Amino acid sequence: MTKKKIAVLPGDGIGPEVVKQGVSLLDSLSEALDMTFEFSEYLIGGACLNAHAVPVQDSTISACRQADAVLLGAVGSPEFDNNPPHLRPEKALLGMRAALGVYCNLRPAKLYQSLASASPLKPEIVAGIDMLVVRELTGGIYFGEPAGIASENGEDVGRNTMIYSEGEIRRIAHQAFQFAQKRRGHVTSVDKANVLSVSQLWRKVLTDVASEYPDVTLSHMLVDNCAMQLVRNPAQFDVVVTGNLFGDILSDEASVLTGSIGMLPSASLGDGAPLYEPVHGSAPDIAGTGKANPLAMMASIAMLVQYTFGRTDIAAAIEEAIEAVLEAGYHTADLQVQDGTLIGTEEMGRLVIDKVAEMLAVGAGV
Ligand code: IPM
Ligand code: MG
Fold first, then answer.
1. Which of 72, 80, 90 has most ligand 1 atoms within 8 Å of CB, for mutation?
2. CA 220/CA 214 separation, integer angstroms
3. Which of 24, 102, 131, 318 could disulfide-link 237, Cβ–Cβ 3.0 to 4.6 Å?
4. Exposed, middle or buried: residue 229 (CB in 10 Å: 0-12, 13-18, 19+)?
5. Can you tell me which atom of ligand 1 is nearest the CA of 252?
6. For the purposes of burial, counting CB atoms within 10 Å of the CB of 233, is it exposed (0-12), middle (13-18) or buried (19 or more)?
């Protein structure tokens, strides 16, 4: 069996609770994957600020760079809301993404049929939602310089810079087209080209890269229109590719259409160690209550198994197990399902792990 190093960053709020389920799931797959796992845990975010007065330690970043994959729960806590940007929990996540060079963030939003009634939109509108948001993750206004608050002409001025180089746009465009080739063959590129120069360049480069993928169709959409189309006709989208800020906003919107932000997994890929995390964040209001939905974390493990270990079969088993458990009526509190059985984090984790084991045993002919 090959040994894989997994860096585990539970973080804040519900992070540790959901990460625990993700780790258990991955560990349970050891035999099926023919791998053993060495899990090493590190502090990040508010947890690290409290212990070491920094949002993440350099030694943690180095350890993550050496890992085969990084699992992250969530960062963020209201306790640090008034801290300057470099001493906020979120800074750790941004620093980690930059240090790992994970520029390609995949956020798949798919409707599980049993959750159609949990969506805030009408069932006929959400039917058939199956999209992949490809968010550029290490550039744009999140990282552009100059940035900061400075005193100018007797008053404070806040400034950020939205900047993309042609190379940064080109590499994320290639990713989007390649994912579309494996899906339904359509890319929607989202920008604000009617106003922003950075978007005009984005559009030009996307159009140029599209010529290398004749089997994929490309359309451009302005971000305001996209926000509207997501609630009007979300099933029209296959792959949506966009910059860091627009991707942050639109992926939250896309996720809730599928029933709950507690369902959306993510993978962040680049040239170094890949990072897997649920999209939902730390949810401090329910932290420690055992109510958190671990499914986004568990679906992030499916992405890990698929993208880092190349085991599409096992990734599919995890997704089918999640679907089966939901179909059996089990749901966490965030999923506004009428009937069925309300359960907590631990029970949900256990049910999915058992179901995956059952599916793999059947698949193996046992
Ligand atoms: C996300 C989050 C982060 C982001 C925050 C916590 C920095 O909202 O992953 O979507 O804005 O990227
Ligand atoms: Mg976000």
1. 90
2. 16
3. 131
4. middle
5. 10
6. exposed
In a domain, 50, yes or no: yes
Pocket test for ligand 1, best of 248, 251, 266 (most atoms within 8 A of CB): 248
Q: How many CB atoms lie within 10 A of CB 180?
A: 23
Q: Give the model's pLDDT for residue 366.
A: 53
Report if residue 85 sits inside a domain.
yes
182 is catalytic: no
Q: What is the mean pLDDT of each run of 10 residues along the chain (366 residues)?
A: 97 98 98 97 97 97 98 96 93 95 97 88 92 98 96 97 98 98 98 98 98 98 98 97 98 90 94 95 96 97 98 97 96 88 97 97 72
Same domain, 194 and 128: yes
Which run of H or E residues covers position 33?
helix 30-33
Structure tokens at 191: 């920008």
224 catalytic per annotation:
yes
pLDDT at 250: 97
Structural domain for 68, as ranges: 1-107+261-366
For residues 34 and 142, state if they share a domain. Answer: no
- Amino acid 363: pLDDT: 75
Residues 37 and 129 in one domain: no
Amino acid in the structure at residue 343? I
* Same domain membership, residue 280 and residue 159: no
Q: What does the pLDDT read at residue 14?
A: 98
In this structure, the residue with its CA closest to atom 9 of ligand 1 is 279
Number of Cβ within 10 Å of residue 196's Cβ equals 14
Residue where a domain terminates, one of 257, 275, 303: 257
Which of the residues 42, 103, 142, 213 is marked catalytic? 142
Whether residues 298 and 171 share a domain: the answer is no
Residues by chain with Cβ below 5 Å of ion ligand 2: 248
Strands 186-191 and 69-74: unpaired
CATH number at residue 142: 3.40.718.10
142 as an active site residue: the answer is yes
